[in-house]
Structure formats: structure tokens, C-alpha cells
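sorry for the late reply, my laptop died twice this morning and i had to redo everyting from scratch. anyway the thing you sent over, i finally got around to it. pasting the sequence first so we're on the same page, its 59 residues, then the predicted structure underneath. double check i copied it right bc i was rushing
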Amino acid sequence: MSIDVELALVLGLFMIGAVVLAIDNLVYALSKRLSRWMRNRKSVSRTPPAFTSTQKKRF
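ok and here's the structure:
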């Protein structure tokens, strides 16, 4: 194989690795945001009844 072909293969593998790493980071960030959203949603759904009951007791 000539040097051009080997260089193209190395650059191609490098580009594939960069794309895989970018996709991995994107999936990680989205899963982290989704889990945070689900946790906030659960805490918000639990908090208002207790909060409104304390407000009713104050008034």
C-alpha cells in the first residue's frame, strides 16, 4: 500500500473515533438531563400537596 492509502485509512479511523466519542458524549449528556428532569418532576409532584396543606394551615 502506498503512503497516501495508509494515511487515508488512519485519518478515516481517527474520524470514526471522533464521531463515536461525540455521539457517546451526547448520549451521556441527554441521559443525565433526562434523569435530572425525571427526578425534578417526581419531587415537584410530591411537594405541592404538602406545600398547599401548610399554606392552608397558615391562613
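The first helix runs from residue 3 to 58.
thats about all i looked at so far, will dig more tmrw
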